[in-house]
Amino acid sequence: EVKGVFHCYSGSLEMAKELVKRGWYIGFTGVITFKNARKAVEVAEWLPLSRTLIETDCPYMAPEPFRGRRCDPSMVPQMAKKIAEIKGLAPEAVAQATFRNAVTLFRLDAAGV
């Protein structure tokens, strides 16, 4: 099983299902907050939290209402909030899950982060 992240995912739901089946994580940027992000919203709605990541893609892909500005980690809560809205969850639940996923995928020391 390959483990990795499909960075700045913009593909179809069908492709996301195949990637998850193969062990991949799906990374969302600020694009998830854009009005025309139908595919990303569809994927986020289906995607298990256990395979969801949030990323800045700094300096690009800032979320609404920061679109057009330099993206940085301070904007990650906007993405967590949008994913939580899509999934009917609390933003804190999305933040905790995506943090755990990053720790697992990148083999980080969670105590040191």
Please give a handful of descriptors for the protein shown.
4 helices, 3 strands, globular, mainly alpha
So what's the overall shape?
A: globular
Sheet with most strands: strand arrangement: 1-2-3
Low-confidence stretches: none
Q: Determine the N-to-C terminus distance.
A: 27 Å
- Oligomeric organization of the protein chains: single chain
The share of residues in helices is: 25-40%
Name the beta content range.
5-15%
Descriptive overview:
Helix content is 40%, strand content 8%. By secondary structure, it is mainly α. Strands 1-2-3 form a 3-stranded parallel β-sheet. β1 (5-6), α1 (13-21) and β2 form a beta-alpha-beta unit. The chain is globular, with a radius of gyration of 13 Å. The termini are far apart.
Topology:
Elements: E1 5-6, H1 13-21, E2 25-28, H2 38-46, E3 52-54, H3 76-87, H4 91-105
Parallel strand pairs: 1-2, 2-3
Helix pairs in contact: 3-4
Overview in brief:
This protein is mainly alpha-helical. The protein has 4 helices and 3 strands, in the order βαβαβαα.
